Sequence to fold (273 residues):
Amino acid sequence: MRYCIAFLLLLLSQLAHGQKAVPYGHNSAAGHYATVRGVKLYYETYGAGAPLLLLHGNGGSSQDFAKNIPYFAKRYRVIALDSRAHGRSVDTGDSLSFEMMADDCAALLTHLRLDSAYVLGWSDGGITALVLALRHPGKVKRLAATGANLWPDSTALTPALWQQMRRGYREGHGQTFTDAKRRNDWKVFLLDWKEPHVPLSALASIKAPAFIIAGDRDVIRAEHTVAIYQSLPRAWLWIVPNSGHGTLQEHADEFNQKVDLFFRAESRLSTAP
Fold:
């Protein structure tokens, strides 16, 4: 009931101010398709300025950035992407990997005639941002990654999430999914069950400055987040107080300001925000 009341109050407020909510993720006025690497990718663009690529998490879409796009669109050319097999992006393949998605990002930027971009990734999007910086270093000006992990086990994920995922795998393993949506959902689930596999030592080769973020009650273990930060040559770290996995939504105003500060900071990154 409280969610219905909150939605009604928001709707009344928008009507009172003559505003209409932007349907992020389903905005035909801002939406585009690009066929790259044999995949039809959907993305929306907002604002003008230096390009900023937004990468959502597992099972999500570009609409997950509804609380962030309006802020960043004031200063950046925001490119909010639906990753392959997510949202409105079409992918008929039978497998999924972070390397595929990172290569998609590089190809999309090339398609848009952009040499490089700032990158903000949440959860799986944060992993993709790091892999993009590893595989295509020239494409990443700076990256911010919140709630990212480098391997898929209980040393990186909280025990509760790990157990939940293990139950999900046991229930789905061996099944034949004839429905296209369920088959796609299973492919997306397997991505986080099987991947990623990025050694901490690999991060030393990332040249782009990085902002590593997680909530203090995140589903990513705090020590894992700190290890990622410590393994990067040029990085800031922010453990967000009173926050779960959705730092960019739960603390949107502060999150937007700090990430923007990081993107615009002087090149020498020696102190945290």
Observations:
- The CA atoms of residues 16 and 181 lie 39 Å apart.
